[in-house]
Prior knowledge:
By secondary structure, the protein is α/β, with parallel strands linked by helices. Helix content is 37%, strand content 17%. It has a six-stranded mixed β-sheet, sandwiched between helices. Strands 10-9-11-12 form a four-stranded parallel β-sheet, with helices on both faces.
Amino acid sequence: xxxxxxxxxxxxxxxxxxxxxxxxxxxxxxxxxxxxxxxxxxxxxxxxxxxxxxxxxxxxxxxxxxxxxxxxxxxxxxxxxxxxxxxxxxxxxxxxxxxxxxxxxxxxxxxxxxxxxxxxxxxxxxxxxxxxxxxxxxxxxxxxxxxxxxxxxxxxxxxxxxxxxxxxxxxxxxxxxxxxxxxxxxxxxxxxxxxxxxxxxxxxxxxxxxxxxxxxxxxxxxxxxxxxxxxxxxxxxxxxxxxxxxxxxxxxxxxxxxxxxxxxxxxxxxxxxxxxxxxxxxxxxxxxxxxxxxxxxxxxxxxxxxxxxxxxxxxx
Length: 316
């Protein structure tokens, strides 16, 4: 869907903001649901308030999500619905700048559900700690998962389960540490805010099986650039070879099988539909197993994939 009133993605360090995180039943707002919302309000660097609520979904959560998040169906059976939770959450965040790790994911879910449930446009500007770390402040790290960045900063508030309020606290700690890195690298925050525009993409040619890009340069900050992508299932809007062509045309790398080196598994909408018998392909089961083992792999739907390949070059 078009999110015409969505706020701006900022690359700065505000003193007052709200850190947000959600847990969901999957990665596509069209098909999946929010099962937990967490938020921490920060004023002048100090945490002053917090918000947390489980959210009862319309459909039971899968065993995979239970293991990944630690949130069980039993925990959710008496939780309020998204319609009941959203008014309190929206009041809590007000018009504050929002901060999160890979926060675009959270924003898209919250935008869509706020619009559907309350006819409310989520207009808050936002800051992505993953974007700050990956492209500007900690590009040398092999991975930019929240846990990896937190360990880099010796954060002690880590646990295996993905829970919203815990992740907000960890994100806020990492955000404060990234502020120090920005000052160290740029001299002060003003210099960071006035840094030069992103460099032009370098000439780079990537070959992937039988699918080869005719392009000679790529935007290095595209989310799929140099990421290994595997497609499973029948895509609804294009043939698989077309999807694979899109991947290499943004600088991505196609893969035939899910391995520990896979970054994204793209699910055809037919596989993603809950009515499909047996539910999951062998590639999806393999990807979920690797995720539970701590591998940095993401399972995305066809619709999320289209959002990613359509992402525009950012000039900041």
